[in-house]
Specification:
Helix content is 18%, strand content 27%. It is α/β, with parallel strands linked by helices. A 7-stranded parallel β-sheet has the order 18-17-16-13-12-22-21.
Length: 530
């Protein structure tokens, strides 16, 4: 990294206590380790300094991890060891006293059974995700753009963030789609919106000055320290932070594209957050929708991110136009589509991109709440759920929106609302339960095994069928004779309850009638073991 990339001011406020592992003698695989260093003399422009560490680990692994200035006289190298063993490092810096610092970190195996390491592409199933330890990942995303701001004014703790994240985790979601920063919305706000639920125009932002009068030569380090707390808590709860580095339509005053200060910001975010094992990068929300940037700018950002991120976290772009034109530049495909026939649309996208997972990051289902924030095209919770299931049965991954957590309006404790105003988060807990004992990554979509509905099968031991609410019956026609005797179970997506029908000998075009009427249902057929 050339020193010219650092020639701008960094600004910091009072420093709160944040989680750090630097005083612990031994660590575990995937721990987020803050290695802190002090410089007797801080340069007048700290950001002009070059600072990084070269790590060497077991099996001749090598990693270069960029560090960052953290206010006062403190500098940090943030590192997450990808494997157990001894990791030695040596620092390099243009700041006196920071170079040639060496030590060895003793890293043991991960002993947290709920922690599986960073999200990866499944080695043998490229259209699916797994974790670093090989555990398959059924990715279920929750949009909360303004999550960073819930406790931005609290220097000591993040109680509101914890309430909401705990609720998200308890209902089966394992990824939060969020911004590094967002400022305000352009649409009209509900006249009944209470001030405590309006997180527009945050009191603190990433740069010096204000959003209206910015000083991009300065970083507000205190802002990033408070964002750190959110990242640490998401990691503690084993929730992936799908971190959108930019957003163009939320009234943020950004540095000019390709400017030095723009590069500085991008570099700083990469250096500060790359170590988090629960991180997925997204260059920008709706990257090419608003006319600000073009393909070349996104190319440039991805190239820089792959160079600067020593931990090699996954990268996507919230723009299907870009992903579809340049699929090899991203690790997985993100698509925003509100089309009515969502299942067919997602099947088509999946068939076009056979080497990457597909995330429907926005399907237009924005469940309503006590405030009208942004209605989208589908506000009924059951319709939104149906669209999520259509994504899943197309063997792709969905994202959920509730109007009172997705954008500037956030109700941190939605389960304390009156019953009529509560979101139906539990529907997604039931979706998680459905695939608790079924390996989603082993399933492929099919419409050849039944008269109607949407099918998933591993072609060996299980067939599943999603029946829209219009289905009075489904006629199953499985040609494989080994499926002649099956164990049949109905699953209710609205209650999470199962209705087991036991062993059934399938007839040609076998007829099944759902036990619940006028609602979506799932039929599960498992090959019976004698």
């Amino acid at each position: 990294m050339k020193s010219r990339m650092w020639k701008f001011w960094i600004f910091c406020l009072a420093v709160p206590a944040i989680i750090s592992y630097a005083d612990i003698n031994t660590y575990q695989q995937w721990d987020v380790i803050d290695l802190t260093f002090q410089s007797a003399n801080v340069p007048k422009q700290p950001s002009s300094a070059l600072f990084y560490a070269n790590f060497q680990g077991p099996m001749e692994q090598e990693m270069r991890v960029n560090g960052f200035y953290n206010g006062g006289t403190e500098w940090i190298i943030r590192f997450a060891p990808p494997t157990p063993g001894d990791w030695s490092y040596v620092t390099r810096s243009t700041v006196e006293g920071l170079s040639e610092q060496t030590d060895t970190l003793h890293v043991g195996p991960n002993n947290n059974l709920d922690r599986h390491g960073p999200l990866m592409l499944y080695p043998d199933l490229p259209q699916h995700f797994s974790y670093a330890d090989g555990t398959p990942s059924f990715l279920l995303s929750f949009e909360c753009d303004w999550l960073f701001t819930l406790d931005l004014d609290n220097a000591n703790d993040i109680p509101n963030t914890k309430k909401l994240v705990d609720t998200i985790a308890a209902n089966g979601f394992n990824q939060v789609v969020m911004n590094v920063y967002a400022h305000d919305v352009s649409w009209a706000k509900d006249p009944n919106l209470k001030a405590e639920h309006d997180f527009s125009s945050p009191s603190m932002w990433p740069f010096g000055g204000t959003n209206d009068a910015p000083d991009f030569r300065i970083f507000n380090v205190e802002y990033f320290k408070r964002l750190d707390r959110v990242m640490y808590y998401l990691n503690e709860k084993n929730i992936i932070a799908h971190l959108m580095i930019y957003v163009w339509n939320k009234e943020v005053t950004w540095p000019a594209m390709y400017s030095r200060v723009d590069d500085y910001y991008f570099y700083y975010v990469a250096a500060r957050y790359q170590a988090f094992p629960n991180l997925v990068w997204d260059i920008s929300k709706e990257a090419l929708t608003y006319g600000r940037c073009d393909d070349n700018y996104i190319h440039n950002r991805i190239k820089r991110l792959r160079k600067w991120d020593g931990h090699k976290r996954l990268i996507t772009v919230h723009d299907y136009g870009y992903c579809s034109r340049f699929p090899k530049k991203v690790d997985f495909i993100s698509i925003q589509t509100w089309q009515s026939d969502l299942y067919s649309g997602m099947r088509n996208v999946r068939e076009r991109h056979v080497e990457q997972p597909i995330l429907n990051i926005e399907h237009g289902g924005y469940e309503s709440g006590p405030y009208e924030v942004f209605a989208g095209d589908y506000t009924d919770p059951v319709i939104g759920l149906e669209r999520a299931y259509e994504c899943v049965f197309a063997s792709t991954y969905p994202t959920y929106y509730w109007q009172c957590t997705a954008w500037n309006v956030i109700i941190p404790d939605p389960m304390n609302l009156p019953q009529r105003d509560r979101p139906q988060f539990e529907y997604y807990k039931y979706l998680r339960i459905l695939f608790q004992d079924i390996d989603f990554s082993s399933l492929t979509p099919t419409q050849d095994l039944a008269s109607s509905g949407y099918g998933l099968t591993d072609e060996e031991s299980i067939c599943m069928f999603l029946l829209p609410k219009e289905n009075d019956f489904i006629h199953v026609h499985i040609k494989d004779d080994s499926f002649r005797v099956v164990d049949a179970t109905w699953f209710n997506p609205l209650t999470g309850k199962s209705d087991k029908r036991g062993r059934i000998e399938l007839q040609d075009w076998h007829t099944f009638q759902p036990p619940w009427h006028n609602q979506m249902t799932v039929l599960i057929l498992r090959k019976s073991i004698e």
